[in-house]
Task: inverse folding
């Protein structure tokens, strides 16, 4: 799929943003085109090779109604709580890399649950932060919300009975 400046897209590991420009860079004698993705929180810029978008898992953001459906599903998601830290970390990383928002929401739910009960290691704390940013960035763009409102909606869905 080809994207244009202004399109809103999602990167599986960095979250959602808007394409602010298309750059052409010469590397190893070859000129390649890159989408420059601006992530809404933190002014982070991600350069994505145009010819690798499909392999990376780049996709258009979902619409606001679809995101609302995902938030409604979060309370029903199971908490994955393997006692083996290494196995738990690997499984959660695979879920993040899938690019599927419901999988990312499951990582957030499981890590928040674990944080409340046992605390998190530094690696899991970073993973929780990344997973939240992936969800919040797409929610901000799909539902036209400010960061704080999106974060509040995510936490409200996590703590529903």
Result:
């Amino acid at each position: 799929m080809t994207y244009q400046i202004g399109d809103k897209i999602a990167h599986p590991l960095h979250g959602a943003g808007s394409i602010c420009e298309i750059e052409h860079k010469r590397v190893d004698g070859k000129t390649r085109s890159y989408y420059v993705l601006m992530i809404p929180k933190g002014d982070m810029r991600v350069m994505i090779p145009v010819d690798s978008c499909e392999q990376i898992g780049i996709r258009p953001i979902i619409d606001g109604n679809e995101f609302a459906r995902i938030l409604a599903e979060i309370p029903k998601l199971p908490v994955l709580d393997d006692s083996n830290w290494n196995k738990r970390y690997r499984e959660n990383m695979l879920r993040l890399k899938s690019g599927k928002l419901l999988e990312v929401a499951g990582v957030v739910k499981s890590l928040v649950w674990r944080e409340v009960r046992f605390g998190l290691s530094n690696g899991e704390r970073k993973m929780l932060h990344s997973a939240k940013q992936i969800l919040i960035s797409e929610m901000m763009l799909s539902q036209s919300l400010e960061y704080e409102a999106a974060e509040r909606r995510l936490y409200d869905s996590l703590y529903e009975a």
